[in-house]
Design brief:
The protein contains seven helices and ten strands. With 222 residues, it is of the alpha/beta class.
Length: 222
């Protein structure tokens, strides 16, 4: 997959341009599936936000970009549905729009649903992550971001990239996400870490990492 890992969605023209480049065609000619599953890991507080994200009524743009079509894929439902009913849908879609919420809850359902098993074969699909939807691609998320706890414990995620992500850097709505907090997080995470604000995204194509930003960010090397 081609990865566009954002903190605050497609929040500026630079990130939008990167998305169009990765799609290889205009957004208006591209199809997308919105995956809101991570938000259910933070109920009841996210009940209204979940609807607003799907409806394109939040400050973190993804579904409202002018897609040719947008569907919804709820991962918690997939184990009860025959694979032939949903796997082709994923394979034929140009972009997966993966919402924020609880990252380890999202990780659990990506594996439980079977979606994660498809990722290696989706070479042309653009994966657009928002907050937890981006963090889930990392090997570890950091203890600061453990909310919903998996049965096995720990903070492991998919490990599809070799770095971790600290989102919403210096966002006034997240007072615990300062640069000082990011530095403490990075000291405990066993891989390189990117602290990114909501105007920054990390683009990963064929293993090549590129930071796309109209804001500020920092890479913590190991």
């Amino acid at each position: 997959m081609k990865l566009l890992l954002t903190s605050g969605g497609v929040s500026n023209q630079s990130i939008r341009d990167a998305l169009v480049d990765m799609l290889g065609k205009p957004i208006a000619e591209s199809t997308a599936l919105c995956i809101p599953t991570a938000m259910y890991g933070m109920l009841p507080g996210t009940a209204v936000t979940t609807w607003r994200q799907i409806a394109g009524q939040t400050s973190t743009p993804m579904v409202e970009l002018g897609w040719k079509s947008v569907g919804m894929l709820e991962l918690t439902a997939l184990p009860s549905i025959d694979e032939e009913s949903w796997v082709p849908l994923v394979q034929e879609t140009d972009a997966l729009l993966v919402c924020g919420g609880d990252v380890l809850y999202l990780h659990h359902w990506m594996r439980e649903s079977g979606l994660a098993d498809l990722f290696a074969s989706l070479s042309e699909t653009v994966y657009v992550g928002l907050s937890a939807g981006s963090m889930v691609m990392a090997p570890h998320v950091g203890e600061e971001f453990v909310g919903w706890k998996p049965a096995a414990g720990g903070d492991s995620a998919l490990g599809m990239v070799g770095f971790s992500i600290f989102p919403h850097l210096d966002n006034v709505m997240c007072p615990e996400n300062t640069m000082a907090d990011a530095e403490k997080w990075a000291a405990r995470v066993p891989v390189p870490g990117y602290a990114v604000d909501d105007d920054t995204a990390i683009k990963v194509v064929d293993g090549v990492i590129e930071v796309v930003s109209e804001g500020h960010w920092k890479l913590f090397e190991r």
